[in-house]
Amino acid sequence: MIQTLAFYLFAFLVLASGVFTILARNPVHSVLWLILAFFNAAGLMILVGAEFIAALLVIVYVGAVAVLFLFVVMMLDIDFAELRAGFVKNFPLGIAIALVLLAELILGIGAYRAGALELGVPDGSAAPLMDRSNLENLGTVLYGKYLFLFEAAGIILLVAMVGAIALTHRGRPEGARGHQDIGKQVRRRPGEATEMKKPEIGKGVEL
Amino acid sequence: MTAFFQSLGMNYEWAWFVATVAGILLIALPLMLAVAMIIYVDRKVWAAIALRRGPNVVGPFGLLQSFADGLKVFLQETIIPSAANKGLFLIAPIVTFTVALLAWAVIPFGPEAVLADINIGLLYVLAISSLGVYGVVVSGWASNSKYPFFSAMRAAAQMISYEVSIGFLLVCVILWAGTSNMNGIIEAQRGHGLGIVNGFFFNPLLFPIWVMFLISALAETARAPFDLTEAESELVAGYQTEYSSMSFALFWLGEYANVLLMCALNAILFFGGWLPPLNVDLIPWFDIPGWIWLFAKIFMFFFIFSWVKATVPRFRYDQLMRLGWKVFLPLSLLFIVLVSGWLMLTRYGVAA
Amino acid sequence: MQLQSSLALIAPEIVLSLAGLALLLIAAWSRNAGRLVTILAAVALGGASVLVAPALCSGAMGPDTLAFEGQFAADAFASFAKILIFVSAIACLMVAPRFFDRDGAIRAEYPVLMLFAALGMAIMVSATDFMTLYIGLELNSLAAYVLASFMRSDDRSAEAGLKYFVLGALASGILLYGISLVYGFTGTTSFEGARAAMSGELSMGMLFGLIFVLAGLAFKIAAVPFHMWTPDVYEGAPTPVTTFFATAPKVAAVALTARVALDAFGMQMDAWRQIVIFAALASIVVGALGAIGQSNLKRLLAYSSINNVGFILIGLAAGTAAGVSAMLVYLAIYVAMSLGSFVAVLMLRNAQGEQVEGLADIAGLSSTRPLLALCLAVMMFSLAGIPPLFGFWGKFVVFWAAVEADLVALAAIGIAASVIGAFYYIKVVKVMYFDEPAGVVTGRSDWAHWLILGVTTAAMSPLGYLLTRVLGDLADRAAEALLFVA
């Protein structure tokens, strides 16, 4: 009963937030709706018993990716009139993409109907182990059977990072403002920073 | 608790429902009270270190000061700036407050006294605490005002930065405990130090992690010396600038609830949570209920938080970022390697 | 231990990734280590080639070559491709420092990204699982996107990188969609499993999956109709990177396509053969016609590479061991020709030491730089497939394989189109030898360029026919390893 209610609540909210993500005029509102959609998707994950995936979804997407997204969108200065002008121009393309997605949907339903093929039957080695938590099962699979792919995916992320830095980082010249050498600050003693003077009256101090 | 309500003649589903609601109230209401009192403590500690008296007018020793303040903001008018984004402006404090309460669902107050004893307890806390940033960011943006916006930008960058290293630090704890269930982590600390001390802090590999965690916790909750989001000398009051009345109070409550949560995490992850400090039955040692030990530890950590706030000057923003990305992140990664390497060596065997 | 045998099989990949990580650290902690890192990266690639060689020489095949429960195959076919990839990557590393010297020393990210791109390609050619395929492809592509826009202050380079990224991401999406369809309809991501599931009648969903997968891969090998990015990217990317794009990733993508087509989709040869034949013919024709109007040498060579991919695909279309073998022979010859011709372009510098790329600028090159002009002429004739040169041999084996597989019409059209293609290759030679000297190309070149150009020219000269025996032998072994399951 509660599961059913929760499912419909989450499902409805995911769909509604998805729709509002597109409909919202203000991009910041769009991102916030998107975040709500993520959040409710995590709720759906919990309902199917994938609590670890749900936590990951919230931590990674809601907690980090979407914040950066929001960060960028908030700083943008978007001309809405121009955006709407682009809508008409891109309408045919949008329709084309929509058609492709529709075809995808139909194919997906086709795949579902083609039950005789025994869709995605786990081949024993990957069969779920019911007596252990999701966390352990995932760990076993990722670091066991798929060790190679997992590590290679790590290298992909490394390459992405190296690439992003190589393309955008411009080295700061030595001694530029804002460069902080903590060791130097700590080593500094009062004697080096101040100098005692006894100025004669009316002469002032040479700085 | 469900069984208790069933004994009152309810069927299981209703009993479960009522028990859950009761559990939530049992945590949330005392938490609100604790927040009110802890604000008083904060001010008292701060005053004592500054050689002042602190609040001492309302009630005996000024104990009722927070309630007086609460009443005052409650009676004020809620002002919404005309240029603000009204809906988001009102939602933001609610988000902050709700999220701050949510995380308490998995905090164990005793072996049985936990609302949701879930497998991924620590991950849940991490997930929820990562949501906290939204309240700040959205409020800063919705205020449609310069200083709050700067504050929101700072908050977004700061919280994400420190979340990364907090995540890695927590991984070390999870690795050592072998579970991310909060009670499991506490149990794993029983007699951890030479069979006597309950707590991971006694472990030479985990002690530096605790130190980093404590500092990151300060940054994550935007407490001094990392309170750049509300740095009054630069940003007026940061994201709270345009807020008044109850919406302001909600930020205030949420903030302190978060601080208490971080204190509780320190206690649970590194100092044995509801376990007594020593695993030796000194006089009535084991008869003291677990929640008293936990509260004492939380209080101790809160004192440390106040102490830091009263004594350490505020960081500059680039220093804050430097500390997070260039010091804590590499160090926490290093410690993951060390901890997992040590565990492979001693617990699981090298060739496994 | 299963893990240990698996790790032994991926030794070259382990060497490459560890070298990449170590070089990153060197680059991070020492300033201006670009040159040192370049040399070390080349050494690492050389080491990996040595590790790969035994599998090729012994003609390794079958279950013993499978690592990680059939996700990765280190057989003779993969080894053949890997050696080509590593060697051309080494060549592209050797020619780079001089090119980047012009605006400051070479940055250490270049060799590191090259190394990771080579790693990605090694994973691609060894993939026997769609997930391995995708991981390898993405690793290679990501590094390639960055390399294309590596000269970030140059507008053309930035544009090339962005174009490549956007279109590449689209192609990845198409590929991934195809993979998900194949997975949905066969219930497995392994090539072996897909092959078994496809042994019966081909369902609609599988057909769509097959088409999408091939379309995604066609983008990577720049076959028509997914070739649009090639001229722009080849022109805009820094020339050493273009050299790289024209050689190693092409080998990897072709080898990967061959494995997917013959292994995963091996039971449905009729379904994909028509696609491959169409792509082959279209590539040959578009490549030949498109090159005619070009006045930029890099653009021209880009169309030439599209044209060559068509010939390579003819070998695949044959679908026989002889066809695969011919494809590999052509691939090897093509790599040498591309390396030679792009390095020759790299050597065209004006008096200020700036790169020169225009066709008009090399007018009368024979009088100012006779040796360079000669080498470039050999490359052009070889690309055109004029008989005494080695380029002819590649076309010959491919057409022979097609004829033997009863694809006479395909071979005939291919031969006819290669005659059209000869037109613009010969035009380049004509400009160099018979036009009034423009006197633009006066800059000097360093020894690494001459070495690579010399070696490739020697290989493409009639001397190259000494290699036919060895090359054919190795290619046969590799083809046999690929078709072992069949």
UniProtKB/TrEMBL annotation, chain A:
Q: Mainly localized where?
A: membrane
Question: Topologically, how does it sit relative to the membrane?
Answer: Multi-pass membrane protein
Q: What name does UniProt use for this protein?
A: NADH-quinone oxidoreductase subunit J
Q: Which sequence ranges form a coiled-coil region, renumbered to this chain?
A: none
E.C. number: 7.1.1.-
Organism equals Pelagerythrobacter marinus
Q: Which family does it belong to?
A: Belongs to the complex I subunit 6 family.
Q: Could you tell me one molecular function GO term of this UniProt entry?
A: oxidoreductase activity
- Catalytic activity from the UniProt record: a quinone + NADH + 5 H(+)(in) = a quinol + NAD(+) + 4 H(+)(out)
Q: Which InterPro entries match?
A: NADH_UbQ/plastoQ_OxRdtase_su6, Nuo/plastoQ_OxRdtase_6_NuoJ
* Function field: NDH-1 shuttles electrons from NADH, via FMN and iron-sulfur (Fe-S) centers, to quinones in the respiratory chain. Couples the redox reaction to proton translocation (for every two electrons transferred, four hydrogen ions are translocated across the cytoplasmic membrane), and thus conserves the redox energy in a proton gradient.
TM segments? 6-24, 31-50, 56-78, 90-112, 146-167
UniProtKB/TrEMBL annotation, chain B:
Its membrane topology is listed as:
Multi-pass membrane protein
> GO molecular-function annotation terms?
oxidoreductase activity
The enzyme's E.C. designation: 7.1.1.-
What's its catalytic activity? a quinone + NADH + 5 H(+)(in) = a quinol + NAD(+) + 4 H(+)(out)
Segments spanning the bilayer are 14-41, 88-109, 121-143, 155-176, 196-219, 249-271, 291-311, 323-345
Asked if the record carries the keyword Chloroplast, the reply is: no
Q: Which residues form the signal peptide?
A: none
Coiled coil location: none
Primary residence? membrane
Where does the protein end up?
A: Cell membrane; Membrane
Q: Keywords on this record?
A: Cell membrane, Membrane, NAD, Oxidoreductase, Quinone, Translocase, Transmembrane, Transmembrane helix, Ubiquinone
Please give the subunit comment from the record: NDH-1 is composed of 14 different subunits. Subunits NuoA, H, J, K, L, M, N constitute the membrane sector of the complex.
Q: What does this protein do?
A: NDH-1 shuttles electrons from NADH, via FMN and iron-sulfur (Fe-S) centers, to quinones in the respiratory chain. The immediate electron acceptor for the enzyme in this species is believed to be ubiquinone. Couples the redox reaction to proton translocation (for every two electrons transferred, four hydrogen ions are translocated across the cytoplasmic membrane), and thus conserves the redox energy in a proton gradient. This subunit may bind ubiquinone.
Q: Extract the PANTHER family matched here.
A: NADH DEHYDROGENASE SUBUNIT 1 (PTHR11432), NADH-UBIQUINONE OXIDOREDUCTASE CHAIN 1 (PTHR11432:SF3)
Q: Which family does it belong to?
A: Belongs to the complex I subunit 1 family.
Q: What is this protein called?
A: NADH-quinone oxidoreductase subunit H
The species this protein was found in: Pelagerythrobacter marinus
UniProtKB/TrEMBL annotation, chain C:
Q: Does the keyword Nucleotidyltransferase apply?
A: no
Q: Which InterPro entries does this entry report, sorted A to Z?
A: NADH-Q_OxRdtase_suN/2, ND/Mrp_TM
Residues that span the membrane, as ranges: 6-29, 36-56, 76-96, 108-127, 164-186, 206-229, 274-293, 300-322, 328-350, 371-393, 399-426, 447-467
Protein's UniProt keywords contain Metal-binding: no
What catalytic activity does the UniProt entry give for this protein?
a quinone + NADH + 5 H(+)(in) = a quinol + NAD(+) + 4 H(+)(out)
Q: Which positions are tagged coiled coil?
A: none
Q: How does it sit in the membrane?
A: Multi-pass membrane protein
Query: Taking the first listed entry, what is the main subcellular location of this protein, grouped into a coarse class?
Result: membrane
- Keywords, sorted A to Z: Cell membrane, Membrane, NAD, Oxidoreductase, Quinone, Translocase, Transmembrane, Transmembrane helix, Transport, Ubiquinone
- Pfam families xrefs: Proton_antipo_M
Q: State the similarity comment.
A: Belongs to the complex I subunit 2 family.
Query: Any idea what job this protein has?
Result: NDH-1 shuttles electrons from NADH, via FMN and iron-sulfur (Fe-S) centers, to quinones in the respiratory chain. The immediate electron acceptor for the enzyme in this species is believed to be ubiquinone. Couples the redox reaction to proton translocation (for every two electrons transferred, four hydrogen ions are translocated across the cytoplasmic membrane), and thus conserves the redox energy in a proton gradient.
NCBIfam families given in the database record = NDH_I_N (TIGR01770), PRK05777.1-3 (NF004440)
This chain belongs to the protein called NADH-quinone oxidoreductase subunit N
Instruction: Please tell me the species this chain comes from.
Output: Pelagerythrobacter marinus
